[in-house]
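cron nightly-structures :: item 1 of 1
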Amino acid sequence: MKRALFLINPNAGQRTFQANALNLVGNLLKKRFLSNCNVFYTQKGGDAFEITSKLRPDDYDFVLAAGGDGTINEVVSGLVTSDCRIPLLILGAGTTNDFATAVGIGKTPKTLEKLVRDFCVKDVDVGVCNGHPFLNVAAGGVISNIAHTIPASQKARFGILAYYFTGLKELGDDKNYRNTRIRFTVGGETFEENVFIVIVANSCQTGGFGKVAPRAKLDDGLLEVIIFHDIGKADVLPLYGMLQSGKHIDSKYVHYFQTNALRAELIDKDTGFMLDYDGESAGDMPLDIGVSDKKLRLIVPKKSLKTQRLFNDLTGLA
């Protein structure tokens, strides 16, 4: 039997989300998969990090993080900081749950119970954006404004469609059609681009689009960089459609490559270019990206083709 810590953000998602977390606790205890489980409800930002950053390797057999992007990021940051190597199970309550969806981690008590029963643990990379760990994505440009401009009521009512509607609205505003001259340094080489949006991804999915980074692997020590450049208003809708299929990486307006480190700087220091990581604001340029190779232990589904596509090492996944 296992010992678990459940960290739940009571303000995230709908009531069914919290019910799923508590039903899981009851089921696991009743079926003797758990010997004991400590449940902690976060009260404010920083609570989840405060707890997980102080964990020791023998405190628990796994930690479940139940909440939106902010809660998940706090737990990941805490586990990385403590270096306790305790496996993480994600119960996403956000609007898109991009990382959990990409890996194939479901949200029902039955699905989560199977994950605990199978207990398939894989080492995954963690990105670093200006010193902040991130599990799924760091980004800059107009895309960084979208998540922060959607009212909570719209997220609750429309779900992922709220992101699409807001994205189209933002991209339909003429003032947002600004390509910013940025200098990139990668592997000792420097180049410049007129950047509309830059995405640095760990998994394949962001913003509800499942193939933004179609070559992504979670255990290769590399991040996927997608630079949308020299974009005009007429180019956006075709690219929006190509994002659905992953064909955008062949567009002349997209520069796609992999790296373990990147620095981006504004040519014109007076030009703003907002950044975020896993939905959290990272301020303005410059952007320094790195990767912590296989830094996090993650509980993932077995016998899932969706999961297998994100790993080079398939040990335990078959």
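cron nightly-structures :: done
The longest strand covers residues 287-300.
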